[in-house]
Design brief:
It is built from 10 helices and 6 strands; from the N terminus they run βαααααβαβαβαβαβα. It has helices at residues 17-32, 38-45, 52-60, 62-83, 91-100, 113-123, 145-154, 168-177, 190-202, 213-221, and strands spanning 4-7, 104-108, 130-132, 161-165, 180-184, 207-209. α1 (17-32) crosses α2 (38-45) and α1 packs across α4 (62-83). It is an enzyme of class 3 (hydrolase).
């Protein structure tokens, strides 16, 4: 029986795409010393960025990564109010309902602890029982280290934990340890839904979710009326 639910953050619970695009674009412009357009930034972000520091380190090298990360955080902070689009529709209601039914909740994200601290104060999400960021682990997704750490922090077992995310990296991480994975399809545009669905199902996703409200309904159909919070 599922007693705990872990979520990816960006692209699953919150819409931070415009924020990241602009923060990275401005960071790249500073680091490379020239203007960057959207297509260039998209190309760099398309290299399956596992986490903020992982991306910057692989693009700029280890020596330049620390300065680039501080620059990125500065941009992320200054742009947050104007470019952060908040939780997706239905997320807050879904989280509150999971709380009502006494599910234990956690986040496993490639976001840094520093960026999470900025977003946490403005996103309006419910408190989580565990938040594992890229700053808390040695190897980001698709390595399952973050999921294992979250399960340990929550005092749960893999078999009673569900992970919900919007990327193939999320699916890979869950599959690596045999954790149930449900794919969040609600952030996907019409042009990418079909290919994403096919890919993530091939990787073992147990369910495709078109809206956050489906999460509570599916869990309730598959478990008792309430979960005992141990």
């Amino acid at each position: 029986m599922i007693t705990s639910v872990l979520f990816d953050l960006d692209g699953t619970l919150i819409d931070s795409w415009r924020l990241y695009m602009e923060a990275y674009t401005r960071t790249f412009e500073e680091c490379y010393g020239r203007p960057f357009d959207r297509s260039e930034t998209l190309e760099l972000l398309g290299r399956r960025p596992r986490s903020e520091t992982w991306l910057l380190r692989n693009l700029l090298g280890a020596e330049a990564q620390l300065d680039a990360f501080e620059l990125f955080l500065s941009q992320y902070r200054s742009l947050h109010q104007s470019h952060f689009d908040g939780p997706y529709d239905g997320i807050l209601d879904m989280l509150r309902e999971l709380r009502t039914h006494r599910y234990v909740l956690g986040i496993v994200t490639g976001k840094s602890r520093e960026a999470w601290a900025i977003t946490e104060t403005q996103a309006g999400l419910v408190p989580f029982d565990a938040v594992v960021t890229e700053s808390d682990i040695a190897t980001p997704k698709p390595d399952p280290e973050g999921l294992l750490k979250a399960v340990s922090l929550l005092g749960r077992e893999i078999g009673e934990t569900l992970y919900i995310g919007d990327s193939l990296l999320d699916a890979e991480a869950a599959r690596a340890i045999g954790m149930t994975f449900w794919a969040a399809v609600w952030p996907k545009g019409p042009e990418e839904k079909a290919s994403f669905a096919a890919s993530v199902l091939a990787m073992g996703a147990a369910r495709l979710l078109d809206s956050p409200s489906e999460i509570v309904q599916a869990l309730r159909l598959g478990s008792a009326d309430a979960v005992t919070n141990r």
